[in-house]
Amino acid sequence: MNSGKTTPEPMRDVALGPLFQTAAAHALRYRSHVAEAPQRPSRDFMAMLATFAAPLPETGAEGPAIIDQLARDAEPGLHAMTGPRFFGWVIGASHPVGVAADWLTSAWGQNTGNHVATPAAAAVEAVAAGWLLDLLDLPRECSVGFVTGATVANFVGLAAARHEVLRRAGWDVEAQGLFGAPPISVMIGDDAHTTVFSALQFLGLGHDRVIRVATDAAGRMRADAFRDAIAPLSGPIIVICQAGQINTGAFDPFAEIIALARAKGAWVHVDGAFGLWARAEPELKGQTGGIEQADSWATDGHKWLQTPYDCGYAIVRHPEAHRRAMTIAASYLPPAQAGERDPSHYVPELSRRARGFATYAIIRHLGRQGIAAMVARHCRVARIIAARVVAEPGIAVLHEVTLNQMLLRFGGDGAGADDLTRRTIARLQADGICFAGGAAWRGSQVMRLSVISWYTTEAEAEIAADAIIAAWRAVKAGANFRDWER
């Protein structure tokens, strides 16, 4: 029965100009002033939940009004992740050229499954994949999957590894699963990132069923410990190395480890979420020596390349193993012929965002030299901050700063240093001039800084160092001097 109400025609229901212009105006205002605002949210989760909580709307509202309210309500709960002094986690700043390309990606609304459905998106991915291999100087025959981030990139690389080591043992894991399969030995450094353990869990290899290899003071796998651990192993083996330890930025000794792994027929995967980008900077590239001999690599675009979230890359030396581990086939999906590339053959999803456009745009904008200069600048900024703060009595930098990561500790080695470090972090965050978080390292509380925002310059390094020193002095002034000195 007709209720008398009519359904508006979709294109007439929403006025595109006012809607998109409203969103663009809010985005421009936010990004133009983020450096001046506190580098932290002004409201916490519970406050934001109270702001947004409401019954399900029974009727709709005008688009521009919704966008206005969304911007007004959300901004107090946003971290300044696109700001110049945000060092809390390894989070890139979403370069404006990438953001603009990502706006187009959303407006185009392309579901990047195959080359017939989205010729432009598939072609751009193919070109950007080649550029990435060139920038990172990895074997040019590698296949590249554009995924959500390093977590899924690790999953994809290790799925290809699982396929190949079991194929060599005469087992088809995609068809038969793991029931009755030859056991796989997985070797990993003691200070590997938690997301790698998640990938092992998702693949049915177990996050605890691994051989953990001892690490040195900076979190690198020790080659001698690896040699001892791999010596008695036989059968399928997967070795997981790390490029850029999340706390110290350290790199595993790839050449030694990979040579030992090769002798056992192992597949070597590298978690290089941010550290793999050291290969884009000539003076830093030496820290990654031997990494190009691995079988697969995981890295992020939304960290050092500054693409908008989400974007990561799964890179595999053996494209056939990559495709067999990932390909989704159906009669309604057009096959890829010679020279054609289906994006879905290299990632877990059939339906997904066209991440290649933003990657392509940023690489076109910065070029090889611009990317190298950015990576070098961030590492230089990290060294400037470290040199400034370590000159202040009571502040220690716990390792040599060789990349963009650093750990600070406040109040010496006494019993009260953990509390003083926590309080200094809290004071720094409350001041809002820069943002850094805390972590546990070797049984002690530390302040952890990651310098990776496109907007962070040497001048911002001085402001950040002053803020850290001021926070420490304020905490120290409120504490018993002899307590923190002990």
Structure notes:
It comes from Dongia rigui. The chain is 43% helix and 11% strand. Mean pLDDT is 93; it is low at 481-486. It has helices spanning 10-13, 16-33, 45-52, 63-74, 96-108, 119-136, 150-168, 173-176, 194-202, 223-230, 254-263, 282-285, 319-326, 356-390, 417-431, 458-478, 481-485, and strands spanning 143-147, 185-189, 211-213, 237-242, 267-271, 296-300, 312-316, 395-397, 405-410, 437-441, 444-450. It is globular and about 65 Å long. With 486 residues, it is an alpha/beta fold. The N and C termini lie far apart (83 Å). The strands form two sheets. Strands 1-7-6-5-4-2-3 form a seven-stranded mixed beta sheet, sandwiched between helices. A four-stranded antiparallel beta sheet has the order 8-9-11-10. The chain folds into three domains: 13-80; 110-328 and 338-353, Aspartate Aminotransferase, domain 2; 370-485, Aspartate Aminotransferase, domain 1 (Alpha-Beta Complex). The longest helix is centred in the C-terminal third of the chain and has 35 residues, at 356-390.
